Every structure is written in structure tokens, then in C-alpha cells.
Amino acid sequence: MRAHVELIHEDDYIFHTGELPYGEGKIFERRLSTDEEDGSSSLALHAAGDWGRGPGVPHADTEFYVVSGSVTYGGVELGPGGYVQVPKGVRMDWLKVREGSRVLHWREYGDCGFDPGARATEEGEVTVVDAERQEWVAAPTIGPLTPLYIKLLHRDPKTGFYTRLIRAPKGWTDHRLAHHPCYEEFYTLSGRMAYNFGDIDEGTYCFRPAGVKHGHFVAETDIDWIIRSDGELVNWYTTEEWIKWGGHAENYDEHSHAPVVSTLPVRSRSRGPWSGDGM
């Protein structure tokens, strides 16, 4: 299981040598989050030199998204907005990351393992998308909200797992608390949003396990994210929220040991204060 991250900026992580077996070249990673049980990871890659890897079979559902620079997959060069998804056990073509490029990389339901030159062990199709060529589509909304806009990059037809781009126009706001039956993960590509759990701007990252309530939001500029979820992201809303706790102390002094109402997620002070900080 991954830890709840809310919010942290990419620059608050440190660089490590990229964990991309059988690759050649110079690439570094910032590990945004990881699942210690199955090795699933979300990474920000920075190519200090050209980097490449030949064809083979990944041990996890594998995704790449170009933030800046370019990636060449099987002879097709993809600039910013380029996206590649390879299902676990499906053979992928050779991949090259150009020096200076910044690329988001995800491994889901498996670790960094890679079998070079191997044949596919599972059936499936590789998805290659140039998001710059896609049109923004208005997302359905509930209530009198300015619409959000979506570019769908990939959806698994069996599990509903999806990766998509989302844009909120300047002035978009939602005061309600929302939670979902699936996890929600995002990386901010551009723009700025005010949020009661800290500032959201370019490079801000979040991973929320299923059931975590969050909100409210105000888009101070147009703002774009890349968002992933391990199922259909249904918004369950809470309004006029309240919290009540109580009980009887059995083996501690209730006056000197305050009860824990909830645990705090991983967070970053560089994102600004939370509502209630200092109380």
C-alpha cells in the first residue's frame, strides 16, 4: 500500500540514479511515491544525457509522459504531451529519452523488472498518444460549476484504471469535500490553485488512497494536471461537514494525552500552511 501524500513538490525530493534496468545512458529519478509491497512506483525522470533501452517485456504496467524534451518510442518521436502505456507482460519497443528531457514514469502492479529481448507473456496492446493533438472535452459536473476539461490518455477496459489530463479554467472553484472509491494521484503540469491543504502549482504531487476526503479548491489561473486512478473516479460529496469524537479513557490520563482524531499524510511545508495550522 502507498502512503497518503498531500501535498509535496517534486523539488522537495532528492535525485537517485534511475532504476531502469538494462538501459544505457545517464538518467536520474525522483521517487514521488512507492508501494513497498509490490514495487509500484511513481517517478519523475530527468535525463542528464541521452538514455535508451532496447525492446523487452516489463514486469509492471508501464507508463511514460513527456513533460519537456522528447522521447522516441519505436522510431516515433514524442514531444511534450507524448504518452506511452505498456501493459505488464506485453513486449515494448525500444525507447530513447533525449538529454535534458523531463519525463513522468509509472510502474503499476509490479516492480522495475524488465526482460530484455523477451517475447510477450501476456496479451495486450501498447498505447501511444500525442496529447497535443487531442481536443479538450468538457467533463460532466454536478451543480453550477465551471466545467473541467479532459484528455483521456488510457483506460483499462477490464479494471477501469485510467490516466488522463485535466484542465480547470481560471476561476473554477468547488467548496465541497469530495472522496472516491479508488485512489487518486496527480502531478501538476502548469498553473496555480489555492487549496486548504496547501498551494498547488507546477511540480506539485499528490497521492490519495481511496476514501480520503479533500477540498476546497479555487483555480487562480488555468491549471493542468495529469491524473491517474485505479478505478472509475466517482465523486462522493460532503457538505456542511462536522467531526465528532469521544469515548472513555481506560489506561491513560485523558487530560494529558490528547486523542488522535486522524493521522497526517506525508506533506511538504514548501506548499504553504494548511487550514488550521498553528491551532
From TrEMBL:
Domain of life (superkingdom): Bacteria
Classification via Pfam families: DUF4437 (PF14499)
Gene3D superfamilies referenced in this protein's UniProt entry, alphabetically: Jelly Rolls
Protein's recorded name: DUF4437 domain-containing protein
Source organism per UniProt: Paractinoplanes atraurantiacus
